[in-house]
Amino acid sequence: MTTHRISRRQWLRQAAGFAAAFPLASAPLEAALAARVLRNAPGKNDPGKAYLNLFPADPTRYRFTLDEDALLENIERTSFQYFWEQAHPETGLVKDRNLAAAPDERNVASIAATGFGLTALCIAHQRAWQDPLQILQRVKNTLRFACTRLPHQRGFLWHFMNMANGQRAFQSEVSSIDTAIFLCGALACRGYFDDLEIQDLASRLYQRADWNWLVRNEETIAMGWTPESGFLRSRWDSYSELMMLPLLALGSPTHPLTPGVWDAWSRPNFEFDGIRYVGAHAPLFVHQYSHAWFDFRNVRDRHADYFTNSIIATKVHKLWCLELATQFPDYTEDLWGITSSDSPHGYTAWGGPPPMGHIDGSIVPCAAGGSLPFMPEETIRVLQTVREKYGSRAWQRYGYVDAFNPLTNWYSQDVLGIDAGITLLMAENARSGFVWDHFMKNPEAQRGMSQAGFHPVESADAHPRPVPEFTSVSTTRK
Question: Which residues, listed in sequence order, are joined to residue 410 by a DSSP beta bridge?
Fold first, then answer.
């Protein structure tokens, strides 16, 4: 049984070595029309004007049908079951992965899955999926253990741990991004629960994080630290899921970083079939994770409108999948989406564009699930197809299996906590904005965005706003 031991840090370091083995097929009609619009529009130097043709309606105004909402309720509730059953009842630490069909004996938790789990408890309490007193006790157990017994370095936590005692597993690193996900979960609880102990514990966990320790004399934040070799060489220096890190650091009341940390990371401009967006040589999840908690709707900084950018990046990912349909005929309007996940050869950081990993026609449900707020109508269509067409092979005790391949009849045996988590949180945000609303009640979250220079988008129309040009350009296609 494969164990998920590779971290996001490791695949970022490896990304330059991934083979782009599959040439893109000829563009489908939608992509060709998009490119033609961009080339021929009167304002062709302003991509935002042409994007209006790609995105005819604001996704935040989409209303799910009764059937669609029932499916999302089912997805969320079964995903929550993972966080309820696969968390240690005393420590609250959530398993990194588990069999999709039933509980198993693995005992390794991840601090990121635990952060998703804390947020899942808020949603479950609001939607009455479990006894409210039991949920409240689980939240308190988790925060108490993390605050008083979980080993840490300057407030930052091991990526992987023994779920019963919190001891380091796999010789993993003290992880900045995974700790940030945990802190976002703790702050979501502080924003939602009207409970003084929860609010105090969450505040203590957040306030002890020494962000200056991770920056030292650099401009960017270190990805992690190990006792054997000190700080990892890789840093959060380019667009990715990193945005929660500097925002939490800017909002800190005890160890704040200066606003320059927000501008220190690069924002490369990618291009695909004439569509420009801020991107990364990384899978689709980088456009999702920070958006699970921080509300980037209708605001922008001096660099970009990041919510619109994630819409564009998701649209590009779909178009790219459709271009691969000549090689992988399972990719259709009803079925597309790959991001870091299990594969027949172990955990893989695959996706694109540009292609990463050995693309083989696999489908990763959390690619669509984590994109629900950005393209609700098109992603719910994918989730419906997986549920209805592949049934119990792709849907088991905890919802969708992590990944599957209809062409080879391969189905992952596992569910991963972070993949179930991003699906659950983004489904709820797409339905109600619940996580955004309660997380953004925290004054530190608001202060972080203010320090980063976010301000309301002036345009109030029903279309996504344009993404500006950048001086650093990396093109995937011309």
Answer: 405
Q: What average pLDDT does the segment 39-54 reach? A: 40
Give the residue from 146, 174, 16, 164 showing the smallest Cα distance to 88.
Answer: 164
CA 460 to chain centre: 27
How many Å apart are CA 341 and CA 252, to the nearest integer?
32
CA distances from 351 to 28, 248, 318 (A): 19, 28, 11
Model confidence, pTM: 0.88
Q: Return the SS3 of 276.
A: strand
Burial letters for 271-307: b for 16+ Cβ neighbours within 10 Å, e otherwise? bbbbbbbbbbbbbbbbbbbbbbbbbbbbbbeebbbbb
Q: Tens digit of pLDDT for each residue in 251-307? A: 999 999 999 999 999 999 999 999 999 999 999 999 999 999 999 999 999 999 999
| Token representation of residue 477 | 């296609």
Helix (H) or strand (E) holding 396: strand 395-396
The pLDDT assigned to 58 comes to 81
Is residue 312 a contact partner of residue 371, using CB atoms and an 8 Å limit?
Answer: no
Domain-by-domain residue ranges, the chain?
A: 8-456
Which of 454-477 are b and which e, b meaning 16 or more Cβ less than 10 Å from the residue's Cβ?
Answer: beebeeeeebbbbbbebeeeeebb
pLDDT digits (tens, 9 = 90+) for 94-144: 999 999 999 999 999 999 999 999 999 999 999 999 999 999 999 999 999
Q: Which CATH number fits domain 8-456: 1.20.1260.10, 1.10.8.60, 2.60.40.10, 1.50.10.140?
A: 1.50.10.140
Contact 247, 299 (CB under 8 A): no
Beta strands in 168-210 (DSSP E): 174-175
